[in-house]
Structure formats: C-alpha cells, structure tokens
Specification:
The structure is a homodimer. Chain A is 62% helix and 3% strand. Chain A is mostly helical. The first copy, chain A, folds into two domains: 67 residues, Multidrug-efflux Transporter Regulator, Chain: A, Domain 2 (Orthogonal Bundle), CATH 1.10.1660.10; 41 residues. The first copy, chain A, has a two-stranded antiparallel ribbon with strand order 1-2. The interface between A and B is medium-sized, with 35 and 35 residues. Chain A binds a DNA duplex through helix 2.
Amino acid sequence: MSVTPDSTERLIRIGEVARGAGVSVRAVRYYEQQGLLTPERSPSGQRLYRQDAIAMVRFFQQMYAAGLTSRRITELLPCWEAGHTDADQRAMLRVERERIQAKIDELEAARDRLDQVIAITDTHP
Amino acid sequence: MSVTPDSTERLIRIGEVARGAGVSVRAVRYYEQQGLLTPERSPSGQRLYRQDAIAMVRFFQQMYAAGLTSRRITELLPCWEAGHTDADQRAMLRVERERIQAKIDELEAARDRLDQVIAITDTHP
DNA sequence: CTTGCCTCTGACGTCAGCGTCAGGTTTTAG
DNA sequence: CTAAAACCTGACGCTGACGTCAGAGGCAAG
C-alpha cells in the first residue's frame, strides 16, 4: 500500500478490478459509494482504476470479514494510505484490534465446544 | 446438556430466562419461533421453561456468534439433546467446525495486518 | 454497420436476528 | 382491591453488504 500515483500507469476498468479481486462489479461500485475508492472517469463516464485498486479491494474484503464496517474502514484509510495518523485513529486501530481478538476467543470457545460434541458422538454413534 | 426432564422441577417464565442468559425477551420468543426452544404453557398461555433453558440460550448465543444460523442449530440439536446422531449430523458438525476454524484463520490474518499498521503508526506518529 | 460484451445510473429486493410499537391479558406486590 | 410489572399475539422496522432488474450508452471485431 501507500503506492505513489504514477501518471504513466495503465488504468483498468471496473470489470478487471472485480475479476482480479474476486468480487462482483456491484461490490466495487458499492465501495466507491462508501468512499473507499475514488476512481477517475473516462470522458464517457466509465470508471478507471489504478492497478493497486485490486489489492485495496482484497484488503477491504479482509476487513469486512473481520467485522469492520465500511465507515470504520474509511476512517482508518489514512493510516496506511498517507502513513500519517492522529491519536484518534491510532486509538481506533487498537479498538478494532481488540474487537477482532475478542471475536477470535469467542470462535475458539465455540470450536472447542463443537469438538467436545464431536468426540462424544464419535464414541457413541 | 442432555438433562433428564424432571417433573418436580421448578419452571420459570420468559423474563427469568432472558435475564439469566443476558438476552432480550424478544430473542427468547424468536428462538421458539425458530424451533430452538419448545416451552410448556401455563393454563393462561404463558411460556414455562425448565431451568436448563438458560444454559441452552447461552449456547445458542455462542453458536450464533460463531456464525451458525438458527436452522443449522436446530439441525444439530439432537446431537447433544439425545446423544443420538446419524452420519449426516456428524458430517454437519465437522463442516461447521471447519467453517469456524477457517474464520479464526481469517481473523488472525486481519489482526496481524492491523498489528503491522499499529507498529508503523506508532514509530511514525 | 452491427453484433456482442462491457459499462452506466437509479432503485427496489434480500437475509437474519432481533427491536419496537400497539393493544390487550395475567400475575404479583402492597 | 388496585396499580405496577410481566406476559401475550401480531406485525412492521432496522442494519449492511451487496443481488438484481430496467433501460440506455460505449467500444473493439468482423
């Protein structure tokens, strides 16, 4: 991340972004609506993305999977786009980190619970 | 779990179940609608639960938190209610267990990603 | 030129686990 | 006996990340 804008870079259209990241075209448009992506536009109005948009979308998916909302992701974007952060953003990073850790603990407890049941049902078929 | 129905047991009403498990009364009614709980009824129509309903609700919450749907939970209920299972149910248990494990791996990756950002933003304030 | 694929802008639909309000009955406390 | 608290049955609302459909324009190939 933190990619320097290169004016000679080959721009890609929305379909290539979607295929590259393994999401739908609709999803990519949605990310723009949420302020996560701000592509250029061709004279005819088509969206034009830089190559790294694919990596960004993959990253968004990872954060969504971790339970962050679009709003939270936009609030945290400056943290690795610009490398500049204020105290509020660093605090938010920690809060989200702890939320994720707590969720991991929950899931491990649930997994262990299922493992118990599996062990029992395997010995008492 | 696997509690033997005891006819001399003191039955409790929905509010006590909800408070005991830390959920809303609405949630407990919803669980019944989904087939997770089947309380008796008083002559006037009020729901009467056995004591272990509280533990059941806590368990439902744990499974919900792990990403299982109401339907899945109902399908798996016989596994520890009766202790009797067929091959399909044991297969489902494994599938859900693997889903949870995959989710844990995802979350750990996301957490590590945030940890990197935190480390960077802490050294470059 | 036209065929066929890609893209555009709205805008409504979905799903799951509840929240919430309405309007009425039941149980409990004083 | 009475008032408050708890319970009942519908039934609509909410949230978030998209799916999906409609109708129309854009673009390289033959």
